[in-house]
Write a structure and sequence with these properties.
With 401 residues, the chain is α/β, with parallel strands linked by helices.
Length: 401
């Protein structure tokens, strides 16, 4: 084993039904293959199962990652959380004797975590600080206020600028790497820290275990997939699913309903309704529960289109793992809401995508008809930008420093 160890700082890893689990599993798997020593430090809310590599995943942090419905915190609460996180990092370093040869990775975080990390690094000094990879997972914010929505984004910009600038000053330049998930974010984060920011591969990357796609004559359209959240347009889809099934009887619709997702509590009777619809219509394929990696990959391989009916109020500046899952497949197209990051990123990459207005059934129908009429669902875009995004995230991490 290498003398250099990798520590994944992930307080947002609270359950196995999120991108945190996907990232952690991939890092652990590839670390073993590449003979790297790694430990994933998760939230202390995480309940380990026998199926997981318990020796490589440690429930540790009490400081939360997600707070206040993703809105900026008041200064006093932000500072209190940062101080708590700083003390937890101190305990972590003492427990595992982390030193300057080691590498810390934080792939999902908010300003209070960056601030706590900066305070801790400043307290131990640059000479003793390990190397650090900081991945900007979320919208960096806006430098100016043009619309009402920019008020929150301007607040995020200030908080991120203060915490990340402090973090930058607390480490040697050669020992810290700032990266983010898309060119749009890259511009924003560079404005925050006045330093180079790189685009890293999609953090939810999974190797295509079976590249063959469905050869069925009928097209298959994935109507919903992933964690259960209201801002994914779920209410609208449920209200209109019966109409879509009857309107497009030549399309096989697939609906993934993750009964283990925390958001399921807001949709208590949906499983019964979906089961009734699958019995009533022969063009609805209902997939339930948490999908293992292979099952998830095969699901995407079996369809030629994926619908992301996401709310612009949430996803105008928010990335999506589903987008990257579609991007890796040349035979699959995205159908998504206008005025979202997904729509802009599709255009930026030159991908074959279809757009519709949020909660507008006529607009959605037009997009589905356009997708249905096209023979080739996807494109083979070999741009350097796309190639970077579609690389394994874990290999990128282990190639740094």
């Amino acid at each position: 084993m290498s003398s250099r160890r990798y520590f994944v700082i992930d307080p947002g890893f609270e359950d196995f039904d999120s991108h945190h689990s996907v990232v952690g599993d991939a890092l652990i798997r590839d670390a073993e293959r590449l003979k790297k020593e790694i430990l994933v430090l998760a939230s202390n809310k995480l309940k380990l199962t026998l199926k997981r590599q318990e020796d490589k995943t440690v429930p540790f942090f009490a400081t939360p990652c997600y707070t206040n419905n993703l809105k900026p915190l008041p200064a006093d609460k932000e500072n209190a959380l940062a101080e708590n996180f700083m003390e937890e990092l101190r305990k972590l370093f003492q427990t595992f004797n982390i030193n300057h040869q080691d590498v810390l990775l934080i792939h999902t975080g908010f300003s209070h975590l960056y601030l706590g990390l900066a305070q801790f690094f400043a307290s131990i000094g640059k000479q003793a600080s390990p190397k650090l990879i900081v991945c900007g997972m979320f919208d960096p914010g806006s430098r100016k206020i043009e619309f009402d929505e920019d008020i929150w984004r301007f607040s995020w910009f200030l908080k991120n600028k203060l915490s990340l600038s402090y973090l930058k000053q607390s480490a040697f330049p050669e020992n810290i790497i700032f990266a983010t998930s898309c060119n749009e974010y890259k511009v924003g984060y560079q404005a925050l820290i006045d330093s180079p920011v790189y685009v890293h591969p999609a953090i939810n990357y999974q190797p295509l275990t079976n590249k063959s796609v469905s050869k069925k004559e009928r097209k298959r359209l994935l109507l919903f997939v992933g964690s259960v959240k209201k801002d994914k347009g779920l209410d609208f889809i449920l209200q209109n699913i019966a109409f879509l099934l009857s309107e497009f009887n030549g399309i096989d619709f697939v609906f993934h309903w993750n009964t283990n997702s925390p958001g399921i509590r807001d949709f208590t009777d949906v499983k019964v309704k979906l089961t009734e619809l699958s019995n009533r219509f022969n063009n609805l394929d209902l997939v339930s529960g948490t999908l293992e990696k292979e099952e998830y990959e095969l699901l995407f391989n079996s369809v030629q289109g994926v619908v992301a009916s996401y709310a612009p109020s949430s996803y105008k500046h928010k990335t999506s793992g589903v987008f990257w899952d579609v991007l890796r497949r040349d035979s699959c197209s995205l159908l998504c809401t206008n005025n979202t990051w997904l729509a802009r990123e599709s255009l930026a990459l030159g991908e074959s995508a279809y757009f519709f207005d949020y909660e507008d059934i006529a607009s959605m129908i037009r997009a589905i008809k356009e997708w249905e009429s096209h023979e080739l669902s996807g494109v083979n875009n070999d741009s350097s930008y796309k190639k970077m995004i579609c690389k394994p995230f874990s290999e990128w991490v282990f190639s740094q420093f």
